[in-house]
Design brief:
alpha+beta; 269 residues; Arc Repressor Mutant, subunit A; D-Maltodextrin-Binding Protein, domain 2; flat; 5-stranded mixed sheet
Amino acid sequence: MDLDLRKLRYFVAVAEHRHFGRAAQQLYITQPVLSRQIKALEQELECTLLVRTTRSVELTAAGNQLYEEAQELLATVASAVRRVHDSDQGVRRLVVAFSPGLHVADAIRAFASRHPEVETDVVPAPWWQQDAPLRNGRAHVGYLRRQFDESGLHVIPIGREPRVACMPAAHPLASRRHLTSADLDDQRLLDAPKRRTTSLEEKFELIASGHGIALVPLAVAQSYSRPDLVHLPVTDATEVETCLATAADRHDRVLRDFVETATATLRRA
C-alpha cells in the first residue's frame, strides 16, 4: 500500500489540534473535506485512528503510533527535499539536533564565526527517541542526554545535569526545600515505559492534573516552568549526562570542526 503524504499531514494536524475545525483552518481546507480524507486514511490502514465525540477528538492506540511515525516520516521527507535544494544551489548546511532544555546557541555562534560559509539549522530531538534525527538524516550532530541507543554513533561526554522532582504546587511535598529518593517511595511516579506521552507539554499537563510526580532534568523543568507546578532537588538522584553524538561513519571536515568547537564551548558553559 502506498501512503499518501497529504493524508498523513492532515492526520497530524488533527492529532495536534484534537479538533477537526481548527485543523481544517490550519490546512486551509473545509472540515468536511478533512473528515473524508481522515476516513479514507483509516480505511486504507484498516484501523480506527481517532475516536470522535461532539466536543473532542482522541487518538486510539493505533492513532498514537501513527502520529509518532508520521512526524518522523514527514520530517524525513522535508529534510530530503531540503538537501536536494541545497545540492542544486551549492549550499553547505549543518543541522544540529538538541534535546529539550539544552541550549546549543553558543556553540553554533562560535562555529559560525569560523565558518561563515556554512549555514546552520537546528531541529528538536524527541525526548523519547533522541537519536532519531541522527538516524533519519534530519541532523548531522545532536546535543543530547543519555540514555539513548548509541549503536552506530560516536558519543562525546559534555557534562552532567541534576534531576528534580516535578509535582503540582498543591502537593503535600511541594513545601519542602529538597527531597531524597526515599521521600518518593510511596508516590506515584510517571514512568515513561508505563505511560509514554507524545510530548513534554502532555507530560507536564498530566503532572499538573495530579496523575503523578516525574523526575526530569533541571533544564527541562525550568524550560516548562508554570505557576501550578514546582520542582524540587532530589539530593541523591542520579545525574543525567549530556553529550554530543554523531554518526560513527561521518568524518567530513565541517562536522569535525563543529564537534571540536561545540565540545570546547559547551564544556565551558
